[in-house]
Amino acid sequence: MPALVNLVSNLLTLYGYLLLARIIISWIRVDYFNPWVRLLVKLTEPFLAPFRTLVPPLGGVDFSPVLAFFVLHMIRRVLIWLLLGL
Question: Which end of the chain is more exposed for a tag (fewer CB within 10 A), N or C?
């Protein structure tokens, strides 16, 4: 069971890093036709999009990733708790 817990934890941590990379590239000019950037957007947009509808930009700053990170952290904690309880 600890191997499964580690796998879930590591995968969600990796996804958190993908979200962070997505946020960073939104601050700089990148070529959105680059295959790596398109892959990053394709992997992260389904998770980030609902948060954008919940948290509108304030003063041109998008705070929805903060909520997304919080929810991802909570999902990680609940899944690990459930796996350890089995």
Answer: C
Find the distance separating the first CA and the last CA of the chain, reported in whole Å.
8
Q: Could you tell me which residues are beta bridge partners of residue 58?
A: 61
Residues 22-67 have pLDDT tens digits of 999 988 989 999 999 999 999 999 999 999 999 888 888 888 999 9
Torsion over CA: 31, 33, 36, 42 (sign): positive
Rg of the Cα trace of the chain? 15
For 26-43, give the DSSP string: HHS---TTSHHHHHHHHH
Q: What is the pTM of this model?
A: 0.86
Asked if residues 63 and 53 have their Cβ atoms less than 8 Å apart, the reply is: no
The three-class DSSP label of residue 47 is helix
